[in-house]
Amino acid sequence: MNFTSLPFFVFLPVVLLLHYLLPHRYRYLLLLVASYFFYAYLNPWLLALIVSTTLLTYLCALGMEKYPKKRVLFLIISIIFTLGLLFVFKYLDFTLSLFVHAGLSISFYPLNLILPVGISFYTFQTLAYVIDVYKGKTKAEHHILYYALFISFFPQLVAGPIEKKDNLLPQLRAERNMDLDKFGEGLRYFVIGFVKKVIIADFLAVYVNQVYADLSLFSGFEILLSTFSFGIVIYCDFSGYCDIALGIAKWLGVDLSKNFDRPYLSSSLKEFWNRWHITLNDFFTEYIYIPLGGSKKGRVRKYLNILIVFFISGLWHGASLHFILWGLAHGLLLIIEDLLYAPISKIKLEDGAKRVIGIVVTYILVNLAWGLFRAQSLNDIAIIYSKIFASFIPAFDLSFFTPEAIIIAILGIALLIYLPYLPKIKRGEKQNYAYISMYALLILIVGLGYFNNMTSGGESSFIYFQF
Questions:
Q1: Exposed end of the chain (fewer CB within 10 Å): N or C?
Q2: 196 CB contacts (<8 Å, ≥6 apart)?
Q3: Lowest mean pLDDT: which of 204-218, 250-264, 271-285?
Q4: What is the DSSP string of 119-166?
Q5: Which residue, 130, 159, 177, sits at the end of a domain?
Q6: List of residues 6+ apart from 320 with CB closer than 8 A
Q7: Are 154 and 212 in a shared domain?
Q8: pLDDT digits (tens, 9 = 90+) for 121-162
Q9: Helices (H) and strands (E) in the chain, counts
Q10: Are residues 61 and 158 in the same domain?
Q11: Same domain, 34 and 167
Q12: In contact, 86 and 120? CB cutoff 8 Å
């Protein structure tokens, strides 16, 4: 089920109402049933995958606790099973195609399996759990249904944030009462998420998709503009999903982890990756980069570890060479940034000026790299960067931007700037009526934007559903 689908707007109020009507001891059952229904709404067969992953990792964690001498065996079993499922559904066809392209004489018949929504996210969440149990960082969960809810909690199930057991599970166990302050905070996140998604991301995606559908028809300026527009699209789309998830979770009395922290205000690529998709970055740092040695085994090893992590990051995003190139590009840029850190730090500039320059340079580099991410083939990549750097033509077709589109764009930019300062509705605040009116207006704007997108063939699904 999609947060922007009409069935969801029926599903959510029912779940919220039942959640607070039921006694505390039954709420986890309601949320588990609701989460499985949410996940299997369009394809019930998906339940077989998440349930099997849940059961196996649950049993392996218990096995580590009961038979500590065999905990390595249980860890290997859980890793092979979870990553094996992910490999079959996401990477098997891609791997076989590489063998064919390499000239190996094998018969290749693509399976064309449908990628289960959210499999990359809940796979990493279960992996983090079993590894933490193996290392003794957390205890194995004995209650199978609470563990199942931890893996399948519907607000963050299909696109994160990736949660740790010790952060989410205690909150799911705790008794939760309706709290006006928490409701107001949840409403703020919920509305911000929908404004980002419906007013900004879905609107700009129409232009980006038009250009990237056939790059050969457009000038270097149009490709550059659409690539930078995609940077806004993917940020507003993904952070918008996470904001909606945070809002829904707060209505249920749960605080999810923050996944974005104004990443385009980063003054370096290192800072960008500490602000973008924070929980995934934390996962790669804790479970891959540090075990590889991190930065403690010399500069060469450090740079190799960075490349390995970003190769995996690119591959995690999709079974395609352009995702791998995007990951490696960020890895190389981080290495170059680290090499240049010492000489740049000696440049005499005021801290404010240096930060502004860093923000501008980082923003440009990150958005230029989005071309690798958004491209569909190596041929697309060649067209994108050859037209931008080798044969740049400043031609621009204004016909796409109707007066209505320009108004929506201006409104979207204004809202994007204002949203971080959107006030919360709090218990006892005298201005609550004004705040409620403000939220009502924003909800009306979102509704109009949603209707406009649906009638003009705009996108409604979230980009990260495909990962």
A1: N
A2: 235, 236, 237, 239, 240, 243, 416, 419
A3: 204-218
A4: HHHHHHHHHHHHHHHHHTSSPPP--HHHHHHHHH-GGGTTT-PPPPHH
A5: 177
A6: 94
A7: no
A8: 999 999 999 999 999 999 999 999 999 999 999 999 988 899
A9: 19, 0
A10: yes
A11: yes
A12: yes
CA distance 391 to 333: 24
| Alpha-carbon distance values, 8 to 3, 12, 34, 446 (Å) | 6, 6, 11, 16
The whole-model pTM stands at 0.90
pLDDT for 341 equals: 83
Confidence of residue 307 (pLDDT cuts 50, 70, 90): very high
Per the structure, the complete domain to which residue 106 belongs is given by 6-177
Indicate if 160 and 191 belong to the same structural domain: no
Angle CA(306)–CA(90)–CA(457) in degrees, nearest 5? Answer: 105
d(CA 384, CA 216): 9
Domain stops at, among 177, 203, 227: 177
Does residue 60 sit in the same domain as residue 139? yes
Residue with tokens 């649950």: 58
Going by pLDDT thresholds of 50, 70 and 90, the confidence category of residue 453 is: low
Same domain, 85 and 131: yes
Q: Reduced to 3 states, what is the DSSP secondary structure of residue 426?
A: coil
Per the domain annotation, does 248 fall within a domain?
yes
- The CB density around residue 444, as the number of other CB atoms within 10 Å, is 10
Do 245 and 256 form a contact (C-beta atoms < 8 A)?
yes
**Peptide bond connecting 291 to the previous residue in cis, omega within 30 degrees of 0:** no
Which has the closest alpha carbon to 229: 404, 416, 467, 460?
Answer: 416
- Find all residues with CB under 8 Å of 74, minimum gap 6, and list them: 60, 61, 63, 64, 67, 130, 134
Query: Is the Cα torsion angle 57, 59, 65, 71 positive or negative in sign?
Result: negative
d(CA 393, CA 90): 38
Asked, for residue 155, whether it belongs to a domain, the answer is yes
Residue numbers annotated as active site = 317
Asked whether 268 and 337 are in contact (CB, 8 A), the reply is yes
Q: Note whether residue 375 is domain-resident.
A: no
* Cα angle: 274, vertex 277, 281; to 5 degrees: 60
What's the length of the chain?
467
| Window from 80-94, 348-362, 447-461 with minimum mean pLDDT | 447-461
